[in-house]
């Protein structure tokens, strides 16, 4: 039993019923839950509250990216909901991230963790070139993660492939949240920069975001248990 579960199950479902059905089978002491754009758009704050009432920490993954005034107000709305963690896109820039961090100060110690997405784990070098970024994914992640840390945020979303370098550059307190996690037997799907759960933690990830390998498994609970077994001793 871990008081600080490192696995965040991505509830990428089209309805509150589907999300709650899975949540009923899970243990809040063994995983946290992520509510993203599809589920939140369909089920809204009530679903987040329902999950929190069942004892789960919720990562509200809406990846806010807008002007500073709008984004900081959205982050404050997430804090009012009582979520454990909320995220913005680091590419929204310094002023946007500073405004968000400052807005959360009024929530004191109960504020959510505020993290920023660097380069989506579905993107590789060619995708970056397509949006005018000639640097490698690693260099762009490092640039955006450093900016995020300098703005006083709590951590970044990145690929576990970038974790060792970021831990060295940015320090052990700066949290690394890593999607693109694939047990060896799982399909890669649309993810490009992937790693197994065990390798990701050994590389320096603080939290593993895992969606389809658990939620689309024939037996999601067994799939989650299998990941826990893979992590024994870490
Ligand atoms: O912010 C995220 O959580 C996120 C960032 C990123 O770069 N890549 C990424 O896959 N995610 C999310 O992590 C989850 C990964 O799900 P699976 O690919 O099904 O394991 C999805 O809910 C994505 O929205």
TrEMBL record:
Enzyme Commission number, as recorded: 4.1.1.23
- The UniProt record lists the Orotidine 5'-phosphate decarboxylase domain at 6-227
Listed under GO biological process in this entry are:
'de novo' pyrimidine nucleobase biosynthetic process; 'de novo' UMP biosynthetic process
**Binding positions (substrate):** 12, 34, 61-70, 121, 182, 191, 211-212
Q: Which NCBIfam families match?
A: PRK00230.1, pyrF
Which HAMAP family does the UniProt entry name for this protein?
OMPdecase_type1_B
Pathway(s)? Pyrimidine metabolism; UMP biosynthesis via de novo pathway; UMP from orotate: step 2/2
**Which CDD domains does the record match to this protein?**
OMP_decarboxylase_like
- EC top class, in one word? lyase
- For this protein, what reaction is catalysed? orotidine 5'-phosphate + H(+) = UMP + CO2
Q: What role does it play?
A: Catalyzes the decarboxylation of orotidine 5'-monophosphate (OMP) to uridine 5'-monophosphate (UMP).
Q: Which keywords label this protein?
A: Decarboxylase, Lyase, Pyrimidine biosynthesis
Could you confirm whether the keyword Flavoprotein appears in this record?
no
Kindly state the subunit structure of this protein: Homodimer.
Name of this chain's protein:
Orotidine 5'-phosphate decarboxylase
Task: Check the record and name the SUPFAM superfamilies matching this protein.
Answer: Ribulose-phoshate binding barrel (SSF51366)
Q: Which family does it belong to?
A: Belongs to the OMP decarboxylase family. Type 1 subfamily.
Q: What are the annotated GO cellular component locations?
A: cytosol
The record, for SMART domains, names: OMPdecase (SM00934)
> Which GO molecular function entries does the Swiss-Prot or TrEMBL record give?
orotidine-5'-phosphate decarboxylase activity
Pfam families in the cross-refs: OMPdecase
User: Active site: which residues?
Assistant: 61 (for ompdecase activity), 63 (proton donor), 63 (for ompdecase activity), 66 (for ompdecase activity)
Q: Which domain of life is it from?
A: Bacteria
């Amino acid at each position: 039993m871990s008081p600080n579960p490192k696995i965040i199950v991505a509830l990428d479902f089209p309805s509150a019923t589907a999300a709650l059905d899975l949540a009923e089978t899970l243990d809040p002491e063994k995983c946290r839950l992520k509510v993203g754009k599809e589920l939140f758009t369909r089920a809204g704050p009530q679903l987040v509250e329902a999950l929190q009432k069942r004892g789960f920490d919720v990562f509200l993954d809406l990846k806010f990216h807008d002007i500073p005034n709008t984004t900081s107000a959205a982050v404050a709305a997430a804090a009012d909901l009582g979520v454990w963690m909320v995220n913005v896109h680091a590419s929204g820039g310094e002023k946007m991230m500073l405004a968000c961090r400052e807005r959360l100060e009024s929530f004191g110690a109960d504020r959510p963790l505020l993290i920023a997405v660097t380069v989506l784990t579905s993107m590789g070098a060619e995708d970056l070139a397509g949006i005018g970024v000639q640097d490698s994914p690693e260099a762009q992640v490092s640039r955006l993660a450093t900016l995020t840390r300098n703005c006083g945020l709590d951590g970044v979303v990145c690929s576990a492939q970038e974790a060792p370098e970021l831990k060295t550059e940015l320090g052990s307190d700066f949290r690394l949240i890593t999607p693109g996690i694939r047990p060896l037997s799982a399909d890669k799907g649309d993810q490009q920069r992937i790693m197994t759960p065990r390798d990701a933690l050994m590389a320096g990830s603080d939290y593993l975001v895992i969606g389809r390998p658990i939620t689309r498994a024939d037996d999601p609970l067994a799939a989650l248990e299998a990941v826990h077994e893979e992590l024994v001793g870490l």
